[in-house]
Design goal:
eight-stranded mixed sheet; 12 helices; globular
Length: 267
Amino acid sequence: MDKKKHTLKVISIINHKGGVGKTITAQNLGAALTELKQNVLLIDFDPQHNLSKHCGVTKENIEEGRTISDLIKGTTDQFQPYQANENGKMYIIPSTEQLAIDNIEFSAEENAEEIPMHLKNIMDRIDLIDTFDYAIIDSAPGSSMLMVNSLYAADLVLLPIADLDSMDGVETVVSMMAGNNLPAKARYIITKYDVRIKTNREIRDVLIYNYGESTMHSTIRVCNALSEAARNNTDVFEYAPKSNGAQDYATLAKEIHGQRKKLFPNK
């Protein structure tokens, strides 16, 4: 019997700095891809578990054995994600504060080669047992073993940039990728963009000048509906489908999916 061809395209959303729109991007890019008839799995890989909460999965309603920590530890053999949007094409594996403990335990493992591979191994297992088109990982900020695992699991690393400080943050990530000879492609995406603000325009000019091919054409504008949707435990397509936020993430999803043969050549 022929082995199943690996088709799951894994996108890790990473920045060394927090507050750049990682979680909102993970949720709404995922929702936008479902609008393109793609099946999407979200992975909350941040101990703050904001992505889980934004999708309506809280500590109060998480069932035992259904978190990313359970899969990492091998305490469950069952893959049971939660439905994450109303159209039934986006699901999520949630996290809890346990993930912070997992991060500490990673560093204590004796086999150094296995430490960065936990999440990739899970992605490979999921690819074999299910039919998701995309997995989107919301990675923890900082340069912990959680972020390293997110890098190793990725086919595409999406780097949100919202200000000058976050540009420094992505340079740290790109340096880590180069230092570990990771094959994943890195792409910059500008978030919280306001054309009226000079610094925002300068950031875009710098990215295009220095990293033109690696900068997404799409930009995510400042949009109150994005944060309002998150507070209401839903995505912007369900909360405000005609908003700038919905338009921008729809454009980003079309750009990524349209370039999938280039961005994910082996998928």
